Amino acid sequence: MYKVAVLARFKEENPAWKRIVDNHGYDVTIFNKHEGENLLENVGREGHTYIRYIIDNYDYLPDEILFSQYDPMDHFGRKDIWGRRNKAHYNSFLYGDVVDSIFANPIGYDLFVRGRSINWLKYFNHLFQEEVDFEKILAFSTSINGIFRVAKKQILKYVLDFFARALKMLE
Prior knowledge:
Layout: E1 3-9, H1 16-22, E2 27-32, H2 45-57, E3 64-69, H3 80-84, H4 87-95, H5 109-112, H6 120-128, E4 148-151, H7 152-155, H8 160-170
Parallel strand pairs: 1-2, 1-3
Antiparallel strand pairs: 3-4
C-alpha cells in the first residue's frame, strides 16, 4: 500500500512530527506557504493545501493520505502538552483506522453550526450543488490541529469539480 503524508507548513521550524510520520512509512510532501519548495499562496490555512493536493493528484492519488500541519504541536500554548497529554492523540492518526469519509469526525451540530456568524448551510449548498439538510448530515469535518487520514477510494467518491468548488471557497 502506497501512503503519502501531506504536510502544510507556514513558518514552523520543528521537524519532529515529520520524522515521526517518515518513520511510519509515509512518503512525505511538504507544502510551504511562506518560503521554500512546493510554495503555495498563503490562503485558506491547511485546508487549502489539502484540497490543492487532491486536485493536482486526483488521477493518481496514493492508497492512503495523511493530511497534517507541519508542526501540529506548535498550535498548543504549552510545548509540554505534546509529551504528556497528546502523544496518544497524535499516534491515533498513525495507527487508527483510516476515516471512512472525507467528512471525518462527527461533532455536535449545536457546537459548530448554530450560533456561528458563518452561514454553513449556504456554503454546503454551494459545495454539494444541492439543498443540504444539516439534520441529516452525520459528520462534519473537523479535527484537532487539522490532522486526518483518508483512503483514496473515499476521495474519489467526489468528482473533481467538488474539490474545485471547495478550493475556490477557501481562496
